[in-house]
Amino acid sequence: xxxxxxxxxxxxxxxxxxxxxxxxxxxxxxxxxxxxxxxxxxxxxxxxxxxxxxxxxxxxxxxxxxxxxxxxxxxxxxxxxxxxxxxxxxxxxxxxxxxxxxxxxxxxxxxxxxxxxxxxxxxxxxxxxxxxxxxxxxxxxxxxxxxxxxxxxxxxxxxxxxxxxxxxxxxxxxxxxxxxxxxxxxxxxxxxxxxxxxxxxxxxxxxxxxxxxxxxxxxxxxxxxxxxxxxxxxxxxxxxxxxxxxxxxx
Length: 250
Fold this sequence. Notes:
It contains seven helices and twelve strands. The protein is of the alpha/beta class. It has two domains: 4-166, Spore Coat Polysaccharide Biosynthesis Protein SpsA, Chain A (Alpha-Beta Complex), CATH 3.90.550.10; 169-249, no CATH class. The strands form two sheets. Strands 1, 2, 3, 4, 5, 6, 7, 8, 11 and 12 form a ten-stranded mixed sheet that branches. Strands 9-10 form a two-stranded antiparallel sheet. A hairpin with a 2-residue loop joins strand 6 and strand 7 (117-119). Helix 6 (197-214) runs antiparallel to helix 7 (221-249).
């Protein structure tokens, strides 16, 4: 009951995959769930003692839930390929598995790095994700993007942080925002949502204000400005894509 399956979702992660696998060396089983990468991700992963699954990507929740179903062990640790478990966090999560007390899962906070700089503010200081959990008690909620775990028990917190190298470059950041906005637009369309001037004229600049001023992005310097602007761009792109989807449906 104390053994761990680590799951690493991938799509074209040749830059990260080997370090990600090494980062969860403590796991009793490592599963790479790949969305048919076209780079060297699989070739590099095969150098290590991992189980490789490939599945056509539909959404993040389904991809992770599928991998969880294939896991051998009771405890699951989810690691995005651009994340790294520090030695301190490793010791803490192993102790949590041995003595979980009343908890069926644990939140982990993350330290973000962007454009070569550690980001202390910009809204990312509030980030926390459930990464360690019992598979019989927790499941991803089905949201296509920014998926969350639903649990039937209490969730605790780990003290030490993950290191998160979230965006390799500005172009990578923009590409991810475009991908997320497309998934979110599709979800909104399925819910029957319509685009108004509020979504186009008010929501994007509001998102900039939230990240740059309210969440202290200006303290992160130029990088904080870029984050705020790109978050605003992501909101605008979401509703432009929703408008295009709805127009095609008529």
